[in-house]
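Lab notebook: predicted structure, single chain.

Context: the supervisor wants predicted structures on file for every construct in the current expression panel, including those that have not yet been purified. This is the next one on the list. No modifications to the sequence; it matches the entry in the shared construct table.
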Amino acid sequence: MKKSLVALAILAAAGVASAQSSVTLFGVVDAVYAHGSGSGVGSSSKSQLTDSGYNSSRLGFRGTEDLGGGMSASFWLEAGMNNDNGSGDLTSLNNQTGGTTGGGGLTFNRRSTVSLASGLGELRLGRDYTPQFWNQTVFDPFGTNGVGTTQTLNSSLGGNTAVRASNSIGYFLPGNLGGFYGQFQAYMGENNKTGAATEKDGNGSAIRLGYANGPINVAMATSSTKFAATATTGKIRSTNLGGSYDFGVAQAMALVTRDKVSSTPTSVTGKGALIGALVPMGAGQIRVAYSTYKTDAAGTPKSKKWALGYVHNLSKRTALYTTFARVTNSGGASQALNGAVTAVNARSTGYDFGIKHSF
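Prediction complete. Output recorded below exactly as produced.
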């Protein structure tokens, strides 16, 4: 009897210890047959077996330690991977084009952070999603993956920090504010101070504030990333507003965006919008979206996309999916789908057939 009690005590202590500290291996393997075709003079088509048509393929490690007093420490290392060929994704060292590296073995390009959290919120350091990106993906029925990805992101003038930023310091509001949430982030290009016009390239800051309660979710984000003004680059200001409402029979989504690049001698402004929906259907889900993006550059380039898809869940972790999309260009735009090439002011179509498994 005494031995049994001792054994139970040991098991209970082990349970407490495991609750205080944990490490998890997780990931997604998503393979997709993707085809794209262009039109017009000089156009081409492309067929490929690629990845991330529904969810981004990844391999990650995350862990949390309870520090007591309502405080915890955690880490998150997440690497994007190309499971069609076994290589890793590229990353940006300094939020600038010249700092791109990787593409061989695994690179923790998706997220690489360490953080402290308490009842006052979370302080997070490292490479992470930018606040201006969250609205793009949360309010896109296709989650900014695959051929259906919103044109507000594909055509965006947001530059290297449109999705993630390296060398960032972020703060997240606590999750007990009655549905209100928020994020602030500052990131650095880490250039030497030499007095050059480019010494602040890659520096920036962003904020996102939102409210989610019951069927409604709405959020606004704005950012500013510094670059020396040239004929093609300059400080980038991005602002977007998105929202969704779940009617039960369908979840409607909408997003508006605005990007401004302060190049010289003339600034360029881009504006975009999206409207879409997720419609449950038995074990699956229909996804539909219309998105558009245009700039005030010469000719007023504009791209409009329709996308329709279906996801069939075989289990909680495995799904089959297909998506069809068509983009129409005008004003000098030439956006194409799934690696195809299309002529200026011409159309491009694409489709995906894939399988996703998460663990």
